Amino acid sequence: MPQLARRIGRAKPSAIMQVAEKAKRLKAEGRDIISFSIGVPNFLPGEHVYAAAREALDKDSGQYGSNRGADALLDAFIAHMAEIGLTGYTRANCATGVGAKHLIYNLAEALLDEGDGFAFPTPYWTSYLDVGEIVNADIQLLPCPPEQDYKLTPAQLDAALAKKPRVFLFNNPSNPTGMVYTRDEIAALADVIVKYPETWIITDDIYNRMVFDGVGYHNFLHARPELRDRVIFLDSLSKTYGMPGWRLGLMAGPEEVAQAVTTLNSNHITNVPEIVGAAGVAALSGPQDVPQQKCAEFQAKRDQVMAVLAEIPGVVCPRPQGAFYVFPDVSVAFGKSHGGKPIANDIDLCNALLEAKGVACVPGSAFGEPRALRISYTCPTPQLAPGLQRIREFFAELA
Predict the structure, then answer these.
(1) By three-state DSSP, how is residue 231 classified?
(2) Phi-psi region of 315 (alpha: psi -120 to 50; beta: other; left: phi over 0)
(3) Which residues touch 292 (CB under 8 Å, ≥6 apart)?
(4) Cα(first)–Cα(last) distance of the chain, in Å?
(5) Which of 370, 368, 375, 373 is nearest to 143 (CA)?
(6) Which of 144, 303, 310, 392 has the most other CB atoms within 10 Å of its CB?
């Protein structure tokens, strides 16, 4: 029979979704499961978002929409960016996609030829590696271990960009670590980037409204506006507005990049559904009380998780200041056993934790850091304390 394309051999299913599906199966079998696995915010947007979607449905023309995105949506996004200090963009600088993941894939297609360098820090969001492998890029990982708070240093970046990768992808706040770069840290990295004009810069900053402790969100363009001709900013409604299933991602950057993504949209999706776009306008330009309230709640949950982890001997966790993840180094458990089952690595640990305690977490190796595991603490509040208690008990029972 005919063969599949070689690129399919490089494509992998999402490791995060595999854990989530396993937890779902166990729950369907009657197990008491608390999931800290999938990165969904677990809240719904304000009623004004649904009202806008219903109104758009009532007025539906049944026609195709814009490959780039509806004018009203692009204008709402431009105003939204201006609120975080990213100003001067026009509709020609922007494009939409079916979620930020779709935009990352389109950008990989638009910017990377086979064998081109694609650099990003480790730990990374799983899809970065997956997309890079599908397009057959030369992936260049920049290890940022817990000993340096999971953050990239200027010296590391300098060494990486000296190799002239075509694309450098940067995530702030970070999934999976929740780490947020300070103004000074961003400025120091931007000073390095200026030296290497051959490299495109993608800032995947979809958690930019979910920052704690007054640290604030900072972008390379704040520090070095002259980088504007090669920085591409990514945003999404999924996390900030509790709309992951609506699948709406947004990007802003140089006109030629936005046009390339728009052209790919014309071949891949034609357009983001008009009803989704109308909901996006309402989310971006309407009342912001729901995301602001949830950000405060997530900060409190972060504190609750960190307090419990601090009580587990040998577990080390740099303090996250954004998103809704913690990423502890749990290697203290390796070489031990639980209930007679040996734990050699992070995958063994997560499997044992799920089987023994009914708590689902994602192994750190899915993100390029096998000493860790990821806890997404967006579960319903009544589940958080019991889930954390089960983790504490699990580590106490190691032999």
Answers:
(1) strand
(2) beta
(3) none
(4) 52
(5) 368
(6) 144
Nearest alpha-carbon partner for 238 in 121, 324, 161? 324
168-183 core/surface letters (b: 16 or more CB in 10 A; e: else): bbbbbbbbbbbbbbee
16: amino acid identity, one letter: I
Which residues lie closer than 8 Å to 254 by C-beta, 6 or more apart? 93, 228, 229, 230, 232
Asked if 228 and 197 count as a contact pair (C-beta separation under 8 A), the reply is no
How far is Cα 234 from Cα 251, in angstroms, rounded to an integer?
A: 5
Q: Write down the H helix ranges in 180-327.
A: 183-193, 220-223, 255-268, 274-285, 289-309
Q: Fill in the amino acid letter for 248.
A: L
Q: What is the DSSP letter of 345?
A: S
pTM equals 0.95
Q: Determine contact, residues 14/126, Cβ cutoff 8 Å.
A: yes
Judged against a pLDDT cut of 70, whether residue 260 lies above it is answered with: yes
Percentage of the residues of the chain whose pLDDT score is greater than 70: 99
List all residues 6 or more positions away from 366 whose beta carbon is below 8 Å from its beta carbon: 15, 16, 126, 374
- pLDDT score recorded for residue 227: 98
Residue 356 CB partners (closer than 8 Å, separation 6+): 338, 339, 394
Q: For the chain, how big is the Rg over CA atoms in Å?
A: 21
Element (H, E) at 360: strand 359-360
pLDDT tens-digit profile of 89-129? Answer: 999 999 999 999 999 999 999 999 999 999 999 999 999 99
- Give the CA distances from residue 78 to residues 84, 290, 297, in Å, rounded to whole numbers and listed in that order: 10, 21, 27
* Mean pLDDT confidence for 214-219: 97
